[in-house]
Structure formats: C-alpha cells, structure tokens
Amino acid sequence: MLAVAWHAPAQTGSSQEKNGVRPGHQLLLHTALHVPWGDLADRFGAANTVGIGWRRTAASGWRYGVQYRFQTGADVREPGLLSNLIDPNGHVIDNEGRIALLTAQQRGTLLLATLGRKWSLGARHPETGFIAEIGAGFWEHKVHFQNRGNRITQLEEPHLQGYDRLSGGWALVPRAGFEYHSPNGQARFQLGLEALIGRLQPSRAWNTDTGLADEGPRRDRALGLFAAWILRLQARSTSVDYTY
User: What is the pTM of this model?
Assistant: First the structure.
C-alpha cells in the first residue's frame, strides 16, 4: 500500500501586503440606486441595479476588473407610450376585449471594464480606505411590458419592437467611496456615490404608437448610491491523499 500526500502552501497576508493593501482576486456582489437626469429623466424615473463583478488588486493599490449589472425600474414616463392602444378611458384592451392588466417597467443591462485605486486609512484593518474607480463599457435599456395573463398581439414579437424604445451605446461610470474591512477579515464591503454617463443610440427605426422615430444620440445620465459585498478569492492549504 502506498500513500502519497500533497500540500499546497498557503500564503500569509502579511507577506504580501504593501501600503496596507493585500493583492489578490475578489468577487463583488453589487447593488445601486440611481436618480436620472438628462434624456433618461424624460423616459424613466428612479431605478436600481444588481450585479456581479470580478477584480484584481495589486500591492500598489491599483485594481482592475469587469462588472455585469441588471437594471430595473417601476417608473416609466415616456411621452406617447402605447397611445394608439389606449381607449378613451385610458385602458389598454386585450385580444378578448377585456381591460388588460398591463404595467410598463424599465429594464437595462450594463457591461463594464473597471480601473481604480484604493488608499489605506491605516485603520485597525489596513485594507480599510478610500476608493476611486471608473468603469467604461456598454449600456442598454428599454421599456418592458408586464402583461398578467392578457394576450395583446401588438405587444408580442415582432410587433413589440415598435413599442419597447430599445436604446444602447457606450457608458462611463465614475465612482468614489469608502471600503471597509473588519479587523477579523470576515466583513468586507464598499459604498459611495457613482454616476452613469451614457451616449446611446435608439435601436428601433420607428415607434408604432407615436408614428415617429426616436432621435439620437441620447444623453442619458443618472446619479446614485452604490454598495457591494466583497468576497476574497484566495488559495488555502490543502491535503490530498491517494491510497493504492
């Protein structure tokens, strides 16, 4: 019988830290709440995002990564939306002649590459400090119709494209805030302020309800609060035994 044991050495944080920053990989769970202005405020109200991100932090405090966010909002202000489907009483009628239980909502996605830096405050945990970052990438949003069991042919594909106001283009997301690491290293999070600055182009050639085309480019803007929970991706010592 032959037994072989293999051990992967663990690296200690103190041997890697420099200027209060431990290099490595982190996974981030994001959430944010934004208030729109510019062209975005003419179409939507306040919205939130949730998402996930990965980043690599260097010993110097510089960091880079990627983020994906899903955007939702309940306040749709788009002028003329569904105007050709609304009856004199303000209702949308379904295929069976009944009042449709229909709500319009905001939907969107952001896919970003990020670059930033952290400055340690020299607190009880040296990784606590101020952060400044900027993200750049793609932003897309549209009007989503939540239809509760009422079939409306005009709001099904391919006719839906004449109503959803789909727009997409590049975006910048500058942010600044504070990152906290508890003394025992079990709680890690960040929070602060960020802006969404987008230059988007309408993706639909024609809006069926208004009989007009959207004008572009759109200057969509939003300002809000962000927060993220941080999970460190770190190799641990392991022992694997093979017995023959």
Answer: 0.84
